Write a sequence for this structure.
């Protein structure tokens, strides 16, 4: 009986194990971690927070910039509910100075990551199969459910979506 | 023994459901799919003339690309579009660029700004304004740049390829796969397009 349980456990954990080919490094002179897609996936899977609100944005994307304050506020308001906001930047590799300056100037409190992976055709469908690649886009992953949105949000709208997923 | 059976069954159920959870559910997107017939349009070009697909009597098909003045990905791809137009227009597949953005939302995408951009860059292809933002939803374009290859089959324009120009829209030097050119080359040699749909990051269309 005990042996069977051990065997069962092995079967279950072996499902979880996957070969990772991830890269991560900090952008020079900042706290922004640069990751390829496998690195981002690993980071998300191993994040200590129960719920993640992952927003794909870029400094050159006007609607993204417009909705950032809503995500910043969401992070503050829902900190005690174990919700973390991850702002995943898709800026160009030659615009990292602009990204750093923007994050500093706006004093962003959310976790900012830089997705450095040019092979978009390979990783976009991994985020969500329905995603065409337009930004802004947001993925909410909770312990029970996850949902993907290819759209902009006001604070009220994103709060409502988060609540339907965590309650 | 019974416990053994139940446990084995349980393990099987868990394993199977783990796979089921990872199964991808394809969502329907609005707009054209591969094999659909694309409708014609009647839009204003930067030279002020109105333009339709039926104006191109000798074309074998089209490279319709939704693009704009302001999106960095569009800007990064302008030279590539000129090169593709120059190469494939001669072979019967001209590029037709359409700006889907609403100028009231994005002043940098006004008709006047389009004229200036086309002149400054020396666009070799028409650059049309989707006035009223009615054409891009028919196609199902969501972002700029967003490419549709149409092949003319008995007066009908059939969608043969949807997606990105290549696999590195940010950095031309890093391109290793030219999706659009591969699709055009396959069509021109009478073959089936191998990679019919690709994805790339782009700016959401502002309407």
């Amino acid at each position: 009986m005990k042996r069977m349980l051990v065997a069962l456990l092995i079967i279950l954990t072996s499902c979880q194990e996957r070969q990772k080919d991830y890269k991560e490094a900090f952008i020079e002179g900042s706290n922004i971690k640069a990751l390829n897609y496998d690195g981002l996936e690993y980071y998300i899977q191993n994040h200590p927070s129960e719920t993640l609100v992952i927003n794909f944005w870029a400094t050159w994307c006007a609607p993204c910039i417009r909705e950032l304050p809503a995500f910043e506020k969401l992070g503050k308001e829902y900190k005690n509910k174990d919700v973390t906001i991850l702002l995943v930047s898709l800026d160009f590799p030659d615009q990292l100075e602009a990204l750093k300056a923007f994050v500093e100037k706006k004093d962003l409190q959310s976790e900012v990551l830089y997705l450095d992976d040019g092979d978009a055709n390979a990783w976009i469908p991994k985020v969500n199969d329905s995603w065409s690649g337009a930004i802004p886009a947001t993925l909410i992953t909770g312990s029970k459910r996850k949902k993907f949105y290819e759209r902009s949000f006001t604070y009220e709208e994103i709060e409502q979506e988060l609540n339907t997923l965590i309650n | 023994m019974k416990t053994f059976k139940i446990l084995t069954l349980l393990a099987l159920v868990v394993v199977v459901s783990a796979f089921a959870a990872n199964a991808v559910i394809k969502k329907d997107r609005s707009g054209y799919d591969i094999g659909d017939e694309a409708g014609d349009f009647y839009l204003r070009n930067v030279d002020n003339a109105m333009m339709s697909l039926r104006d191109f009597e000798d074309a074998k098909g089209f490279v319709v690309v939704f693009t704009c003045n302001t999106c960095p990905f569009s800007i990064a791809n302008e030279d590539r579009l000129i090169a593709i137009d120059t190469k494939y227009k001669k072979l019967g597949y001209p590029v037709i660029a359409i700006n889907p953005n609403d100028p009231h939302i994005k002043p940098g995408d006004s008709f006047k700004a389009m004229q200036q951009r086309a002149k400054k860059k020396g666009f070799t292809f028409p650059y049309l304004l989707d006035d009223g933002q009615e054409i891009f939803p028919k196609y199902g374009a969501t972002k700029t740049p967003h490419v549709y290859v149409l092949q003319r089959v008995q007066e009908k324009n059939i969608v043969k390829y949807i997606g990105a120009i290549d696999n590195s829209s940010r950095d031309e030097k890093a391109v290793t796969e030219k999706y659009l050119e591969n699709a055009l080359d396959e069509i021109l040699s009478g073959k089936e397009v191998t990679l019919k749909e690709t994805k790339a990051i782009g700016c959401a269309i502002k309407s």
Observations:
- Chain B touches chain A through 39 residues (CB under 8 Å).
- The longest helix of chain B spans residues 2-22.
